[in-house]
Specification:
The chain has a seven-stranded parallel sheet. It is α/β, with parallel strands linked by helices and 380 residues long. The model is unreliable at 375-380 (pLDDT under 50). The chain contains 16 helices and eleven strands. The radius of gyration is 20 Å and the shape is globular. It has helices at residues 3-9, 16-23, 30-38, 42-57, 100-111, 130-143, 154-164, 168-178, 193-198, 206-218, 235-252, 279-292, 303-306, 308-314, 331-334, 345-353, and strands spanning 64-68, 70-73, 117-120, 148-151, 180-183, 222-229, 255-262, 298-299, 321-324, 358-362, 368-371. It has two domains: 3-57, no CATH class; 64-377, TIM Barrel, CATH 3.20.20. The protein is 43% helix and 14% strand. Bound molecules: iron/sulfur cluster (SF4). Iron/sulfur cluster is lined by residues 79, 81-83, 86, 88-89, 123-124, 155, 203.
Length: 380
């Protein structure tokens, strides 16, 4: 038992009731979630989250931290939307759209490093319709049948449906036929409408984002979920967001992983209106999501956004995944993160093992590919 947990149980700690609930595997309420956010006892939050993560993993896997050997593919950065926190989307004059040949060249380069996953997302571009993407996917799958395609946020699915006047089911079915293997969790931002209106987020309200993931799960796809912080939200908005996700997971059960994200402000005009999350806030998001999202198998400390050092701490706060090697990350770097553009498998393994855990390379669906730090076993 962690010392901080024992201390809370043996005192009149304000979170004592919540600690007892966690230890007895009782679901936390919305007000419990808010109390957790109100607490400054970071040691206790981290200890509780780590306790839950270990229980969920079981004793055999309690020390495993996952990473994946993957690439990011962002075929277009032009977007018809104008979300105020976005630095990635660009006006037409500064935008790019890759040809299929350009996409293949990038995939070929990454494939030589043994990637198992392509994570593909982009802007909402009328020139990049469903046919553009199904063509890209078919070519990739033809050349690299063993690489898993995790692609398209719910925002992109909604856009394709509007553009072609198709149902979400039809769009997703066509993408699955072209090789879609799973969906990422982006585009959820913060579900709260007041925050979204201030940030001029017109796309994909909560009900639509959740419905699209619901349909995807029913069609057999796994997906992830995110929450973007630093855009004017408060702790009630965060718990409201997590509660939407937990309810959806109860219904459709297809979420693999939750990933808290932090806004970077370079190229935006919102910095003076919002409070930038501190390292303390980021660790709370990791720990509290682990405690509140009791039906999510994995919590990810996305190293590109957190930085390698906070990611290492986060895996002591309930996270069991630090994402991947990420060839060609563009979205967070467009917004000003100073992390490297990618890391090799060896560096991912060092990040994990020097924090006291066992690195486990996984595939997209969390099947274990390789355990331990012997990078020479694989071509990466
Ligand atoms: S966040 Fe997404 S939808 Fe909004 S402007 Fe950026 S790329 Fe477009």
């Amino acid at each position: 038992m962690y010392l901080a947990i024992e201390d809370a149980l043996n005192s009149k700690h304000p979170l004592k009731n919540i600690v007892e609930k966690v230890l007895h595997n009782i679901r936390l309420s919305v007000s419990d979630g808010i109390h957790l956010y109100e607490s400054n006892d970071l040691a206790l939050l981290g200890s509780l989250a780590q306790f839950v993560r270990e229980q969920k993993a079981g004793s055999k896997y309690a020390k495993y931290v996952y990473y994946i050997n993957n690439m990011h593919l962002n075929p277009t950065n032009y977007c018809v939307e104008t979300c105020r926190f976005c630095s990635y989307a660009n006006i037409k004059t500064k935008s790019y759209t890759w040809t299929i040949e350009q996409v293949l060249t990038k995939v070929k380069a990454a494939s030589e490093f043994g990637i198992t996953e392509i994570h593909m997302v982009g802007g909402l571009n009328p020139d990049c319709d469903l046919n553009y993407f199904t063509d890209i996917m078919k070519v990739i799958k033809n050349e690299y049948p063993n690489i898993h395609l995790k692609a398209f946020t719910a925002v992109e699915i909604e856009y394709f449906a509007k553009l072609h006047k198709l149902s979400y089911e039809t769009v997703l079915t066509r993408l699955i036929e072209a090789g879609l293997g799973s969906m990422p969790g982006g585009g959820a931002e913060i579900f709260n409408e007041t925050v979204r209106q201030k940030m001029k987020v017109k796309k994909t309200p909560a009900v639509t984002w959740l419905k699209i993931h619901d349909i995807a799960h029913k069609l057999g796809l796994k997906s992830n979920a995110t929450m973007l912080t630093g855009i004017g939200e408060n702790i009630e908005h965060k718990i409201e967001h997590l509660n939407y996700l937990r309810n959806q997971q109860d219904k459709s059960g297809g979420f693999l992983c939750f990933i808290p994200l932090k806004c970077y402000y370079e190229g935006t005009d919102i910095k003076d209106e919002v409070t930038e999350p501190t390292g303390y806030d980021l660790l709370k998001d990791i720990a509290i999501s682990r405690l509140f999202l009791d039906n999510f198998p994995h919590i990810k400390a996305y190293w590109v956004q957190l930085g390698e050092k906070i990611a290492q701490i986060a895996i002591n706060f309930g996270a069991d995944d630090i994402d991947g090697t990420i060839f060609e990350e563009r979205i967070t770097h467009a917004a000003g993160t100073k992390t490297p553009l990618n890391l090799a498998c060896k560096e991912m393994e060092e990040l994990i093992s020097t924090a006291g855990f066992i690195p486990c390379q996984r595939d997209t669906l969390y099947n274990q590919v390789k355990i331990g730090q012997d990078s020479l076993l694989l071509n990466c």
